[in-house]
Amino acid sequence: MADIPARTEIGVTTGPIRGSRKVHIATKSGSGIRVAMREIDLEPSSGEPSIRVYDTSGPYTDPAAQIDIMAGLLPLRRDWIMARGDVEAYDARALKPEDNGQLGPDRSGGVRPFPNVIKQPLRAKAGANVSQMHYARKGIITPEMEYVAERENLGRERLASYVRDGESFGASIPDYVTPEFVRNEIARGRAIIPNNINHPESEPMAIGRNFLVKINANIGNSAVASNVASEVDKMVWSIRWGADTVMDLSTGRNIHDTREWIIRNAPVPIGTVPIYQALEKVGGVAEDLTWEIFRDTLIEQAEQGVDYFTIHAGVRLGYIPMAAKRVTGIVSRGGSIMAKWCLAHHKESFLYDHFDDITEIMKAYDIAYSLGDGLRPGSIADANDEAQFSELYTLGELTHRAWKSDVQVMIEGPGHVPMHKIKENMEKQLEVCGEAPFYTLGPLTTDIAPGYDHITSGIGAAQIGWYGTAMLCYVTPKEHLGLPDRDDVKVGVVTYKLAAHAADLAKGHPAAQVRDNALSKARFEFRWRDQFNLSLDPETAEQYHDQTLPAEGAKTAHFCSMCGPKFCSMQISQEVRDFASKQNQGVEGFIATGPTGAETAAASKAAALKGMEEMSRVFKETGSELYMGMGDREHD
Amino acid sequence: MADIPARTEIGVTTGPIRGSRKVHIATKSGSGIRVAMREIDLEPSSGEPSIRVYDTSGPYTDPAAQIDIMAGLLPLRRDWIMARGDVEAYDARALKPEDNGQLGPDRSGGVRPFPNVIKQPLRAKAGANVSQMHYARKGIITPEMEYVAERENLGRERLASYVRDGESFGASIPDYVTPEFVRNEIARGRAIIPNNINHPESEPMAIGRNFLVKINANIGNSAVASNVASEVDKMVWSIRWGADTVMDLSTGRNIHDTREWIIRNAPVPIGTVPIYQALEKVGGVAEDLTWEIFRDTLIEQAEQGVDYFTIHAGVRLGYIPMAAKRVTGIVSRGGSIMAKWCLAHHKESFLYDHFDDITEIMKAYDIAYSLGDGLRPGSIADANDEAQFSELYTLGELTHRAWKSDVQVMIEGPGHVPMHKIKENMEKQLEVCGEAPFYTLGPLTTDIAPGYDHITSGIGAAQIGWYGTAMLCYVTPKEHLGLPDRDDVKVGVVTYKLAAHAADLAKGHPAAQVRDNALSKARFEFRWRDQFNLSLDPETAEQYHDQTLPAEGAKTAHFCSMCGPKFCSMQISQEVRDFASKQNQGVEGFIATGPTGAETAAASKAAALKGMEEMSRVFKETGSELYMGMGDREHD
């Protein structure tokens, strides 16, 4: 049931999200594919239609689903994968003790392995390429693309009267998403659908500028904290609140087993940073890393079903000195590990040198590249510096190399960036990386608020999402301080959901504003339950309300404790509307009948209209000169 | 002592902010004026200088100060006020029961009045004008202006080597703030120093685009919740965490007595919305409001020392119909009250009609106008509509009228505004209101996250602060749901401090980045205590760290529980730096000596440089065409 996770055994939170009803919508093609979403029913007396919202929570919030963590989720996509006829099953790579960090004779500290590991994973037949980009470029619309199109539409065809309004900085957001549109976006590399053929449990989703802005939640243990049960619980908890993908960033022991439990039970794409596990295999000594160990780790993770790999192939030998003069050096774990290796060996990064070999693996499983920003700035002082943009230039080069093999790519981004430097990041990335999806960590817009970095970064994330970033990697209140617990995970996810939605609104994404309008209307009409149910976190909204007005009657009260019954502006607004209509007129007509009303009203309105016309004229004439002319008059 | 407020008697939080030391800095003129700030000392082994930060917390955090809530604070400014020779003492207006909401024979529910009420308040002598704007326009630099100049500088003259970097959209932020600069900004109306001659306890501060971005915290009871002790405690608590001004928005009983306790103990300007108390005096029946009752309330509050009044004189009769078609009508309490009155009487707003009479009162006490945005949008759907901008146009008209009498003015602003509509608000306000300071409520960038509206609005506040807004009115997690408690107040304040600071950084405010750099350097060097002490909320930062690593040794550990000892990128970065220098060379030289190092490094570096030059060329040539050209190719 909701909110009772077990810590001693692996238990997860199930049950519907408050106020929501799981639905499965058939795609238009009649192919039988059904897309999971949820609908929020509003009070019947309101006459308002149900609101359909995008749903990442998977079967866990479906009362009709049977959840068995030991068995994993149903392999939703398996038939689609097999039907393409281009994969073969083979004997899995043998599991080694070092895969779980057990390097010496001491085998203690292990965890229970997932009981239903697939012994014969899939890979592409010889010579085949199973990436969605490959299919897209051959003109094929896959079931995954069809699923994505329906998922992104959210029933927007019901909004025929909606007038689009936004500033998308040149994006191409369609009124209505067709499977063909999805295919085209993937073919040109402007979007990806990350889904390894060995992760058939995942519900397909797209990451791209012309789709809804997505968010990622990070989980994973460290040598110092957490365990398998907590990590599986955090994964399910994070998608309940809206995480579109989840990265398992474990760096402690039992990395392989932990990941298996997570992937088998994840309805969302799972990403990893393979260099972490590789480093564990060499006992934490970066200099002892080799291409062979890394390659073996890629295969190991590919067979389990990881959907995207962060690869720090842009941390090149020549760039490392550029980081020496920084305030916070190299803040990326993977980036710092590769830097150490390069310096120790006086050689170019083996990730860069073997990039095409990595690509061969990616295309055999349909794993997407998340080209890592190992040289991202970790402080305001380091933002947009030479090290950062040198790496970006290389990521652009690698994007085009990967695309030659039809392998899907997204690009990771910063970091810590003050607001005035954010747009340059977006512009450079679009140009250099051929519009490949951008996937940023925030950025944090100031360094001075550890404990609140979900907010310092939410500010930057909303902006860079507006400018065109396709996925935002969340930051929790624990950033810079420690490993997040499940409460931190929830706060981070909800913060990033609202930032992504603010970006969708600003971009003019069709149907984004439907939810805001529904909630505001519920607020205005004192439908408190509807307001809570439409919000991103219904439980917290209700809890906050009930702190001062817990009685049941308060849920229909025409006030709350902020202002009380006499001062509620919503209530007074209602009275104003009612009062005027009682006179059997519209408000305007009502005003006109008063003794001085007509003249006064007309005069003030005319003055305002005139004033606004004048304002418009001035703006058109002066444009951006508005600021320039005024700015220098310091000594008037 | 810290954090033990008493609820049954009036008690407040005292004691230094962790890691900070109160200082009083003499102004340059040698006049003897000393400005309160605080300094954060860093670990001696670091060799780093102390960091001076702006301090709103008043004597409460000064261990040398004697705090006696019954007596109030010392009248810091009294000598300056008397020395100007333009004020006279007179017998205060008699307190009436209705001032405390006691309208009938039932006198119960009252609170203990402040024991040291001043029986003879000050006002301007006949024909005099005591506003800071009046002095400024006569070329006089007052002690208040001198105080402000020193306060805003924060010792920035020690940063001679600092290179300014920002985008201020045409603001005029000086390298160094002189008292003359302050005088000029006030004379031209671009900044205000809100300080009523009857509030001599206040430490002078400036609100204006060319100064540090300020924040306001709202406190006050309602008919449903809270009491005097809680409100005084919240005021002291809010300024501890950084509130620059505080508004007392009480709407319940005991408004007069509550306000007296607050003002006598407030080292920051206090604002109110007088219409609230006026409405209480007529038993909550808006139609029964009269100009006389309102005027009497203004005098009552002026004598107590309120520093700025929110006056909703822009809610004109002719604009009210425009709000009828909105999703959320009129969300401002004052705005909805005035709308109700106007419709009931079929007459123009008495605030508008009597504006010049109000101005006469303002100039006799030096109370600043906060021209209210009674028609601000309360939902995304209503943003930037006709009602909102009609009112803004009128606020512009009223600004110029007030300025004719040398009365200080700031302009209130929205509300709920999606990101792409924010800039228009700033541009219109600057143009129409003659660059009078803008004071916005957020804006909230989406409606869908009640419970998280400090964040939805923090996103908008940071942006509009960057564009030029001078003060940001905070929003707490309880927005739309109930009255905030002290925890909510703290979260709201810290959120708005970080948003204001992010704006200062983006504007290129000199010395803003000093704190970010100091904190990041401490982070990089594992000076955990310094990192906490430099942050906006040292206690929370330390608490979060200690949740997983509580041992004392962890405070100097070269890792935290996020990554553990092997994976800490900060630690590895340090090792990279040390490793290279052990070879007795810079990192660059070190790389060059390797077998293939020199060639590889040079080649990659040359490639990157070439690539970046190419990027720059493309940007210069195509400019904003970068997006346009790419955006329409939907069917390539």
From TrEMBL, chains A, B:
**UniProt binding sites for substrate:** N218, M247, Y276, H312, S332, R333, G334, D373, G374, L375, R376, E412, Y439
Q: Which reaction does it catalyse?
A: 5-amino-1-(5-phospho-beta-D-ribosyl)imidazole + S-adenosyl-L-methionine = 4-amino-2-methyl-5-(phosphooxymethyl)pyrimidine + CO + 5'-deoxyadenosine + formate + L-methionine + 3 H(+)
- Single biological process term from Gene Ontology: thiamine diphosphate biosynthetic process
Q: Which Gene3D superfamilies match?
A: 6.10.250.620, Radical SAM ThiC family, central domain
Task: Give me the residues that bind Zn(2+), please.
Answer: H416, H480
- Source superkingdom: Bacteria
A molecular-function term among this protein's GO annotations: 4 iron, 4 sulfur cluster binding
Details of cofactor binding:
Binds 1 [4Fe-4S] cluster per subunit. The cluster is coordinated with 3 cysteines and an exchangeable S-adenosyl-L-methionine.
Q: For binding [4Fe-4S] cluster, which residues are annotated in this chain's numbering?
A: C560, C563, C568
Q: Which residues form a coiled coil?
A: none
Which Pfam families is this protein grouped with?
ThiC-associated (PF13667), ThiC_Rad_SAM (PF01964)
Cite the InterPro entries for this sequence.
ThiC, ThiC-associated_dom, ThiC/Bza_core_dom, ThiC/BzaA/B
Q: Where is the ThiC-associated domain?
A: 17-88
Question: Can you quote a single GO CC term?
Answer: cytosol
Cytoplasm: is it a keyword of this entry?
A: no
**What is this protein for, i.e. what is its function?**
Catalyzes the synthesis of the hydroxymethylpyrimidine phosphate (HMP-P) moiety of thiamine from aminoimidazole ribotide (AIR) in a radical S-adenosyl-L-methionine (SAM)-dependent reaction.
Subunit record text:
Homodimer.
Instruction: Quote the protein name from its UniProt record.
Output: Phosphomethylpyrimidine synthase
